Prior knowledge:
The complex is a heterodimer of chains A (about 240) and B (about 270). Chain A is about 65% helix and about 0% strand.
Amino acid sequence: MRTFDRRALALLLAGAPLLLAWSSGYYGQPPPGVTRLALGAHWVCGWLIPLSAAAVLAYGTAARPVDPRVTAAAPRDPRERWWLEHGLTLASATVFSLALTLGQASRSAEPPLALLIPAVSGLVVAFCAAQIAVTRLRLSPGPAAFAALAVTALPVLAPCLTPALRWAAVDPTLAAWMALAPGTPPYPIGPGAVELGMVGPGAVGWPVLAVAAVVAARLLPPDVSAIPGGAHDLD
Amino acid sequence: MTSIELWNVSKSLGRTLALDGADLSFGPGLVALLGRNGAGKSTLLSIMAGLTAETSGDLHLNGSRLKKDRRPLRAAATFLPQDLRLDPATPAAAYVRYLLDLRKRPDDQLEPLLARFGLTEAATTPIGELSGGARQRVALAYACACDTPILLLDEPTQGLDPWERLTLMDYLAEAAADKLIVYSTHIISDVEAVAPRLVVLDRGQVLHDGPAGDLAAPLVHEVPVEDARGLVTGRDGLYKVRCILDGDPPESAKLVEPTLTDAYLALTR
Lengths: 235, 269
């Protein structure tokens, strides 16, 4: 019995042109000394992978072909069950993302860890955002995908585009490069900004926050019957 | 013996009071739930299934007051919603087995139930290729195969033909010997046929709780159609309308025996 709606995979088509353009080095204005391939690899691993994972997982698991009222009647709480029920999907997404990341590292000559860390951090946030959107907020597929996408964009995208939040980026290298890239506003860059370490506070902090949110969503409320929602089903 | 008691149970859905101070007690047997759309039937069933928490009031399962944890209720009850989502790509029997496994229920009763509901041949057919009535029978087979002491069915006869309804009512009457079965319906004949107890809800309030025969029978008149202006229009005097009149009946009106439908309409109008 499949538990994931495969139609969600069609959402990947939306990111396909970006994947092609970025990973082929056809797009981007890297700072001096940085290749387009390297910049593209960071965009793919730091942005595209987490955002795609969030949208696809939220859509596919919200549209799963099992009635949520049956899932809720199962002995295990649906908020816990989501991880077990979609374990294979999560594992597949992880393996696919890691393979893509290593492929990008190989093509761009970037250190694999510099790409793996933001990809994994972003994936953790994406998984948690999708889980909360589907099981705690009980959103239907479209809104669930949108919510997970928006929540995941906050740590992976916003710090790269907002100078004041650069310290919180899951990919410090990308955030620094974007600040130095020609055509972008002259952000105040501190000495050694480009040499920022591969693991910034954001790469650890955001996944920790996301996991804490999942735990809080499981505990509040403790029983699934107290979760509001599904009122449209009642008369 | 399984019992559920609701003490002054209310449920608000936004600004709407879906259930308003319901005091009901259920033991083994068959109970029919009648009410207009929006009367609170599904809300009541959902609360009894442990899937929705009441806004106020108390719920008791087998004499023990339930706290916020509704797992005992969910383990004891199976709720079949009127629009159960089924996977169109999965064969019927395999899907029901998956649902039973999800709920950790044995599947030993599934084959006989599929046969009883006329689904033996359809068991290997993907659900999406089945007719609406067959899909409803698949859902019923799941609910009945769960074999929980409490069975809550929301409009289970929807989409069934008269023979299928008869089969279901036959099963429910048989199973009600040792289970609590509550089913909601809009079809009065389903109630007249088997349910010894009838609960009528309207705007979240319990209007009637007892045998169907105890519903206060209204005065019903049959009036030739030409004398019932404003109610219907007709071309000749062959047609008559049954009406519950507020004022004096016209001279042509004839007092007739009220039916359960008349009693229900009079109660909820």
